[in-house]
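Reminder: ligand-aware prediction takes two inputs, not one.
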Amino acid sequence: MSSAAKPLIAPSILAADFARLGEEARAVEAAGADWLHVDVMDGHFVPNITIGPDVVKALRPLVSIPFDVHLMISPADPYLEAFRAAGADYISVHPEAGPHLNRTLKQIRNVGAKAGVVFNPSTPPETIEWMMDEVDLILVMSINPGFGGQVFMDSQLAKIERLRAMIDATGRDIPLEVDGGVTPLTAPRCIAAGATALVAGTAVFKGGPSAYAANISALRGD
Ligand code: DX5
Ligand code: ZN
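Here is what comes back for the chain with zinc ion:
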């Protein structure tokens, strides 16, 4: 079903020029990005530190595409409201970031955002078997989270297939997103496995603004 459809492309601003972040966000939107992927890291859940709600808030008025906020922080619960208030449309959490995933997902919806679950390479699909009704987005990491520019892990393709089947069984249109090492070479394999959305940092931002439209088209398979 999804193999012929074009994927949504969500550029990860982790690979943007941080000194010109606003212009970069505008440039990828103009180049055809569907969502803006924002990687939030705390130096504790993952070994890197990036940005917080104030940066999301500053970027929000500059573009109109949805903000796909990927929280790599622990705990996440105390910050959900702040990210929503800053303009996050999707807020995704890792199950390992807190003791009560179900409660966290409900809290994300309660603050008015769509609730996403992120799978580390070692996280099994069954983690969400009993909470498919609470999930609005599924994000499969095809690298270990923390840094851009890593190599895509083929082992995650079977997990994407399994999650595709779990989503299809719900009858709901839950986006299935892949994050990490997504390039024009690995993208078609993700789509064939059932992905409907692709995060890409390096593959979108390489070459600077004049290359963004071609980079996004190449990922989408235009
Ligand atoms: C890493 C982030 C990714 C990262 C992807 O923890 O979640 O979104 O930016 O970067 P690339 O596309 O370069 O692998
Ligand atoms: Zn991410």
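The beta strands are 8-11, 36-41, 67-72, 90-93, 114-119, 137-141, 176-179, 197-200. Residues 8-220 form a domain with the TIM Barrel fold (CATH 3.20.20.70). We will return to this case in the review session.
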